[in-house]
Amino acid sequence: MADFSSQFLDFLKAYDSSAYADVTAMAPDDPKAAEALEARKNQIFSTYKDKEALWESIPQAIRDRYPGRPVPQDIMDAAARGEIDTLRAMEYNPSLKTAEEAREKVREAQEEVKKWTDITTEAAVNVAVTAAIAGYAMETCHELARNRQMRDALHEKTGGKMSPEEKAAWLESRRRDRDAIKHDFFFHQPERALVHLLSLHSRGKIDDQTFARDIAEVAKRLETGNRQEHLLHYLKLKPIQAKLSHLKPEDLEVLRKNITPYIPESERGKIMENIENRAAARAKRIQNVNAKPAEHVRQPVHKRDYQNQNVRTL
């Protein structure tokens, strides 16, 4: 019996509506008809399983741009060739409409990284290129690559058995990573900084005054840097909507009143609805988990009976 996941059903909706109708049809009462339908489902699964797996390997953010429609063939071809960086570039940058545009973006990042004479290891180069196509400024990519290269060299030298001083140096490089990313968020990717600030405030990690000041400052950079399209793309990502669904009601209101006005009005309601639906579903799950079962009424136990229950049988 073929097992169709929800992702597989979404694929069939886009690529073969008649197959989707057959797969989701109710089993008929007649045994022969039911057997024929089951055979049809197995045939559909066999026909499409490889193509569906390829489609599913494409980042969700890209597939979400083509709801109910096939993904363009050039993107499917890139997935078939295992062009991970090409797909990442398209995932993070919605302005890249074709695989070739994304390949050019990757080539530009690779050429820039080649100029750095201090970055020599493949792992460090990959870190820099991946960060670049994800939208980080090149100086941030350089810092992340340097830190990765240093950690790899330290690990190779010690075999993982570091002295306290070496461990401190390793941790310091991680701190530099965090500082570089935070700086990049605030000065180059304000859409990420806004979500980060909302999360911090909702978790009590930043006071009200600092939060209000930083939100206003980052929102201004969003406008002056023409990052509105990036904000829209970022807020439509399912992992980001899941993160925002954890916000307290007052921070959700900040999102609604102070941040969503930067995206097209036609998109605001849907995005907020998705976030609030996720929040409601999570609250319901928590409520169900925390619900106390009916208390068991303990029957009085006579002392003699209790003693007899604990007598070891020889």
Helix percentage range: over 70%
Instruction: Tell me the series of helices and strands, N- to C-terminal.
Output: HHHHHHHHHHHHHHHHH
Shape: globular
Uncertain stretches of 5 or more adjacent residues: 301-314
* Structural class by sheet pairing and helices: mainly alpha
Quote the average pLDDT: 90
Distance N to C terminus = 53 Å
Rg over CA atoms, rounded to whole Å, is 27 Å
Descriptive account of the structure:
With 314 residues, the protein is mainly α. It has 17 helices and no strands. It has helices at residues 6-15, 17-23, 31-57, 60-63, 73-80, 84-92, 99-114, 122-133, 138-158, 164-187, 190-202, 208-224, 228-236, 238-244, 249-259, 265-290, 303-309. The radius of gyration is 27 Å and the shape is globular.
Question: How is the secondary structure organized here?
Answer:
Layout: H1 6-15, H2 17-23, H3 31-57, H4 60-63, H5 73-80, H6 84-92, H7 99-114, H8 122-133, H9 138-158, H10 164-187, H11 190-202, H12 208-224, H13 228-236, H14 238-244, H15 249-259, H16 265-290, H17 303-309
Helix pairs in contact: 1-2, 1-3, 6-7, 7-8, 8-9, 9-10, 10-11, 11-12, 11-15
Descriptors for this entry?
17 helices, mainly alpha, 314 residues, disordered C terminus, 73% helix
Task: Characterize this entry briefly.
This protein is mainly alpha-helical and 314 residues long. The chain has helices at 6-15, 17-23, 31-57, 60-63, 73-80, 84-92, 99-114, 122-133, 138-158, 164-187, 190-202, 208-224, 228-236, 238-244, 249-259, 265-290, 303-309.
